[in-house]
Amino acid sequence: MARKNLIGISDSPLASEDGERPAVGRPIAGLAPTQRFNGLVGGITRSLSNITQKVERAEELERQLAEGHAIVELDPELIDSSFIIDRLGVAPEVQALLVQQIRDHGQQVPILVRPHPAESGRYQVAYGHRRLAALREIGTKVKAVIRNLNDEQLVISQGQENNARTDLSFIERALFATRLEDRGFSRETIMSALGVDKAALSKMIAVVRRLPLDIIEAIGAAPGFGRRRWMELADLIDRDDRRPKALDFIDAAEFKALESDQRFEKLFALLSLARKPSKAETWIAPDRSRAVRIRETDAETTLAFSKKAAPGFAEFVRRRLEALYLEYQRETGD
């Protein structure tokens, strides 16, 4: 089997972690001490005993791998990301620091993977994406624990490990929860993954549902801001339909060059600017009736027809909109 090849079982006694080999006659991995035999029969018996020990050791290692009790080294190019993304990017300087730490001290904590559910011979990460990326950059193998996980077990492991590290921001956790729900996971599973109750989970998902995904991804993790500020941002975007203005703003190179918290602050400040008071005037008809009220803002001009002063006038204009527009094009050349 492929996993046995990864371990590389040999006839020589197993070495301990510090490189010291066990003393002759000491039981290895729970096996009884090897008995000594003389002559041809003894040689055959020793060979059979060695084969039996190797088979038993292989079976034990297979069991440990299946239960996630053994650490193996894998080629990072054989490992794919989780099917659910839980981060909104990592600052280059933060990732560079992790790379340097691993260069200096080695990989201290293994990542958790499962056999890839669709591609034989490959693996899929449950947690440890940053460590995997760092080791890819360094060009060394990845220490990993392999466990047979179904999708639900994978996302629970992924979420709980991130909770233990407390390095995901509010919006990353909320987006992770929403993506899980969109893939059909139950609220109970998502609560287990994130370690939150039903009320907190509902609030997290509600924030993401109100915000355009483009804006969330453009801002990034914004670790300095929690649920209340993200809800306030959603309120600002909804006010007077400022979404187009926000989408234009986040597309600017100057915005993209900022750090994540700064991007949040800049967009929040832009949308918080006091609105210019709308210009309003009343069109007075030749008969002196106040038939139409005109209100103008930076984004649009609104005509409000008075049903009391001029009943039916709005419908009259509506029926002639096409002709009016064609006349406008002829006069302006637009």
From TrEMBL:
Which residue numbers delimit the ParB-like N-terminal domain?
Answer: 72-163
Q: Please give the superkingdom of this protein's source.
A: Bacteria
**Cellular component terms (Gene Ontology):** chromosome
State a single Gene Ontology molecular function: DNA binding
Query: One biological-process term from Gene Ontology?
Result: chromosome segregation
Task: Give positions of region: Disordered.
Answer: 1-22
The record's listing under SMART domains reads:
ParB
SUPFAM superfamilies xrefs: KorB DNA-binding domain-like, ParB/Sulfiredoxin
Family note: Belongs to the ParB family.
Q: What is this protein called?
A: Replication protein B
Species in which this protein is naturally found: Sinorhizobium meliloti CCNWSX0020
